[in-house]
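Marked as duplicate of an earlier ticket. Keeping the data here for the record.
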Amino acid sequence: MSRNQVKGHANEAKGKAKEVAGKVTGDKSTEYKGKAEKHGGKAEAELADMNDGNEESKNKEAP
């Protein structure tokens, strides 16, 4: 797992925590910020997964 994957998953978890905190307290702003951070982290992790896949395929093709 690369640093970007770890960073993305960490941001996803942090966003989920903010989202839940916003729901519990009734603070829509915090809830929406948490959702945005969660989805951003998920996208970051997915992008890192794709980049790692590209690196692996390049390494396999090299003789």
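See parent ticket for discussion. The chain has a mean pLDDT of 89.
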